Amino acid sequence: MKTIKKIKKITPQINTAQPDTPKTDHIANRNRMVLALRREMMGPAPFGRPVDCSGDKIICENIESLYNPNVQTKPYNEILKGESPHRRYGVGVLYPAGKLNVEDEDPDESGTMAETPGEEGIAKECLKNLEKIIDTIGSGGPEKETEDFDISLANLARPCSMGISFLAELKDDCSITITAKGGRYRRREAVHTRSGKTALWWLRSNVKITASFKSESILKKNGIIQPDVMPVAVNCDGLNIRIELFSRPAPSDGEGSSHLRLLTACIVNRTCMKQGDSLDENCLFQSRFIVKALDCHGADVIHPYPEPELRSANEEEQSLRLLYRKSLTFATGHGCAADWDSQEGAIHASAVKAVPFPVFETASITPQIFREDGSELLVSMTPLAGLGEKDNGMSSLEEVVERYGLWIVKKEKEVQGLPAEYTSAARLHLEQCRRCHERMLDGLSYLKTDKEAAKAFQLANHAILLQQIRSFRESRTPEWNEGQKRILFKNKFISPDPCNPEYGRGTWRPFQIAFILMTVRSCSDDSSPDPFIKGYDNRNTVELIWFPTGGGKTEAYLGLTAFALFMRRMKNKEDTGTHVLMRYTLRLLTAQQFQRAAGLICAMEALRRDNEDLLGPHEYSIGIWLGGDTTPNTRQEAIQQYRKLIQGWTDAEYNFVLLRCPWCGAQIGSFDIRQNTGRGRGSRGRNQQNTQLLGLDQRNNTIVLHCADPDCSFSKKLPVYVIDEDIYEKPPSLVIGTVDKFAMLAWKPEASALFGIGPDGKRMTSPPGLIIQDELHLITGPLGSMAGLYETVIEQLCIDRRNPARPVRPKIISSTATTRRYKEQIKGLYARKDAALFPPPGLDAGDSFFGTYARKSDGTLHRGRLYAGINAPGLGSVLTTNVRVYSSLLQACEQFDDAGKDPWMTLLVFFNSLRELGSNLTLFQADVPEKIFRLSNQTLAAKRRFLNNIKELTGRISSSEIPGALQELEKVPGKDPYPVDVCLASNIIEVGIDVDRLSLICVAGQPKTTAQYIQVTGRIGRKWRERPGLVVTIYSPGKPRDRSHFEKFRSYHERLYAQVEPSSVTPFTSPALKRALHAVMVAYVRQAGGIQEKEKPSPYPAALIEKIIELMKFRISIVDPQENINLINAINERIAEWQAWNSTEWSSGPAAEMPSLLRYAGMYYPDMWERVSWPTPTSMRSVDAECMPEITQLYLVDNINEIRETLTDET
Question: Are residues 957 and 1003 in the same domain?
Fold first, then answer.
């Protein structure tokens, strides 16, 4: 270990003037939202003027009092009007166990405040838009197949009991007290004296039951334990509400303690109904209870709830137990959620609770690091970019590394005080931290001793600084100048001063710069073994960044991207071509990150122009490589699209991705002059005179992007390419695409240019040296298996073999939201054994040095994202529950001012499937507006919410609509017209929705995986210091999985990241090989082969096939050796078919005279094709499509059998 020097006092050159603290208390407003939801779903909801209900008759002096909301005066309590209690509330209701098995007949419910809204609660334009979405997506129907089995609701729709189980140590004269509370409703008639009109009112009164148990009684026997004294019941006449306690010995802990008992406490409504009895008067509403257990000294005796014992806990399980050892579960629910009272880190609880409406606030993780004097440790980019007068910024880097080293030393001392069961995992964690620290020291040394690296690092800091201070600005909108007959931009762009960036910009978070230091050598030095660990090759290590959503992962690898690109040119000015492949999983994220990365490339290109002697004459550029639905794949398509746009065709879609100049923010795209001049509409759906297309020009048979502002440095041309053919002709420095686009390698031989390979199969430039894979956790299951198979070809094309003695593999960087089994996933995808997680975990989940739980100055946790769970079996239908939840949240925020509304104005709703989304769409046409109308009356609201803008954000919408949808989500109430009221979304929002103002989401049903749940709920509450966000999860009472998550609500959310399911990647299993082995073989031949191989599959390319077989055998020996025989058999079969079919064309349409070797998977072809060609995917996601039955051919060509037998004998 290197000696840690004494830390110097450093004064960073950073603008520390923070923006004004917001006056609006968003936390208080969030509490009001939750209270409104609780009142709607569970009750009670007392509103209105007080009325004396103590007499024999309730007399109303005016007719309005008969129907309008009121409350009781003696005592103060709720009055329900116009709706019976069991229809009003669906959460926390205990129905009588002995209820008659007949349909409930509601008594006369005359006196309803309003049956239908007096006016529409939804705007006509919004309604039309909603109808279009319904027509397209469907309103939902019976699901063909569901992964989550729906159990019968016969016994769940009206529960009569709720309970919790917990573990207690009963000795020293312990006592257990159970206190249950709730409400009951009695029917009363109210009369208007003058008219004689009557109305049915339901008067609420409080119910309370207390029962006590002694430890002696509990320890004597198993089963039902009777209270030591008669339970004390308040206001329970006519109801048979019982508190019951079940006792049994605790699972053996190895010590055989006879005082540990596993207890289950319940409240049960054992009331028996008779014919004619009112169901409402025999129910217990707002039910909940608390259990307190103390010994004779007042000490807590409730222990952590026993977890299943793992016979052989693996390394990962041991790690999780260490990290979350302070997040203990003290109870589990039965028909309700469990909660408890305990101090942070306590090993005992003072009380456990049964709660039907659970809420839990998670801790916020912050990347901030504070010194002992309270000042924040920040790393300014300005001096690191060479813009400081005296300081070069290296001292701030030294401080980060040194403080990390001191933190490790501190944690090593703490290991000595840990229980033995945790020490093994703790030492492993700190060993990883130590390795990370040593790599940082090496990176720091590299930057100090290597002049090229130091200069590239300086330029990278300068580029990121320029990108940051110019990003996140609104588009500069143009206007038509009638006098000059041209378009001018309203605001002249003033370049920000990089030496004085505004607050929050121009600084590295410590974890970002630490990650760059750790990986800087291995990204640039082709031979970079770890200097401290023998045999450890950092170049081949896959680096994995783990940090919660919004932490700044993107900036970390953008900084590394800039450094790697500068280093490549500094080594060889003529070494153009693609150096960085940045891959995402969803087109939404890809398009959004493209705008961000384009700003970096513009900054790099501006610096190159100023340093041409150092970086050469060739531009830095960026390309986006996506499917034809998102970007034009050919120049012809682009020109057609361009002409439609410039002619103002109504059906024209903008598929050129950029909406504004990445350098100055000037608007790019269609500009309608009529908005400024009021001109009329042209005929036949177009008007060339009214439409101007900004920032696009047709030049040399292609479309070129440029800035529309003539004063911008990129007014002639932006270094941005969005057309596939342009990308192949002039490979950009950085290519951003989706992972499944690489399935096109089998179809597009010209894509070899991205790997520096010419049409003749010879290397023209260096191959990509850096591969960045974002959201690694999404590359799992079928998609992951396909991606792992294609990686065989991708990595081979990226290996630089110009020095046969030391071939150079690409450096792989990835980011993830989850870390379960990451090593196995990386091995399955990339066939690399070494993976390094950053930041490595420490001894607690809340402290890895670079990421810690955010705390206030007094040491208490900062406010975090609040989760609320809704399980409403009493409402009978999940759709009814949804209407109640949506309406309550939408109406609640209407009472705030514009600043207070902003976080809560837009309700984001996530659905697990398009079928579920479709069934909910129709609710917003009538049900939700009507319910909002009733709510506004019931709560005497000053304002009623009207729905003006409902949006859909799913994979069904076209790519050209996505940027506009994201812009609409940015609209702020009071500032922009018609902000989005509701956004209905599918899994497309898992990644890529970075809208800071969003703070409210409903999750309609527990998502299939915890990783998805984390990602979806991470879309809101990104500005957690001022608006931490509210997540409302609606559970289906009929789904066992939903019910289980609800009953363990706090346990689940308190250890959310520990609940993530392990990912699975199996690229060499039979199904994956059957689907894509031939595609991988063809892709390699067409990408690595010469002109002959690129154009024709015949003659059989034996040498190339032999090479790809050798590569796959090597990979399978690392990934899954047990599948080796399957691979050999599949290879032999594909070779036999290739040779026997003797196809002369790679691909052709179904109408061709002779079948080609490849045919498009999913497209109809004549029967003859089925026997002599391979169905080949154009996207890796096609593996998730529905499969059709296949009629097997009962005959085979004789020579195929002969070839197969020969190959088998040779193998």
Answer: yes
